[in-house]
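New to this. Please check this record:
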Amino acid sequence: MNTTMHVARFTVAYWCVLIAALLPLGCAWLAKSGNLGKPRKDGGYDNHDPRAWMAQQKDWRARANAAQANSFESLPFFIGAVIIAHTLGAGQTLLDILAFFYIMLRIFYVMTYVSDMPTARSAVWAAGFFVNIAILFIGYR
């Protein structure tokens, strides 16, 4: 009789999936920051019609909202790549390093987007995309 019990563990790569899922919320908070306590009549955040309020925002707030949208858009590919890599038996250390690197790139992406650095933002986005492709294929044999 086999008495060993399989214990599932949450890998660094899986923690990175959680962080990637929380990044859009951070962008949304950033876009709304400083306006949450201000009355609507004074231009404060309007929770009754948040999309219309956000559509009126300019500069860094609008860019933070765009970073939020892009963070949601990039999420399915990252989640899928991590799950596929795990399923294919990718080396855990390399997978964890690449997933962590992807998260760092996404954070830098948000920073360059909000700071209005379009060339750097595009370069960081491309690097993140290629890291994601690497994650997808590291378990391929």
Residues 114 and 137 are 31 Å apart (CA to CA). Residues 12-29+59-137 form one domain.
